[in-house]
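#structure-requests
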Amino acid sequence: MTVESFRRNLRGVNDSEDFPEDFLSEIFYSIVNEPLKLETASSMDVSEQVFLGMHQTSRTPRGQMVHADPGRHLFDTTMFRLMWGPAVHAMCSIVDSVVSERLTPTLWNMLEGALSGLTTAATIATSHQG
């Protein structure tokens, strides 16, 4: 993936606007210089084709989000363990990038979103201990 394709993939996802190009470049090159790593080698057996299939399924009625009763989780532990490390790393990278900048309203929203995501991830993690 190139920095241009990375920016293209993220067009319009910031409240229907684009993120600043220099911000996306910084994130892209931080990932290039320090790639996101899964905890175990066996976790890396998931191919791009599997993710493409999951993406396509998510656009069908079968792939829609299922709302569960409070206190009851339907989240798959295997998927959680696969996504936990990269998701937390990505949110921490955003926090790390944003806190070194002068906080504009856009950066403030990004920081709030990343911190909210980390809080949610920690809450979900309590259901997948062990």
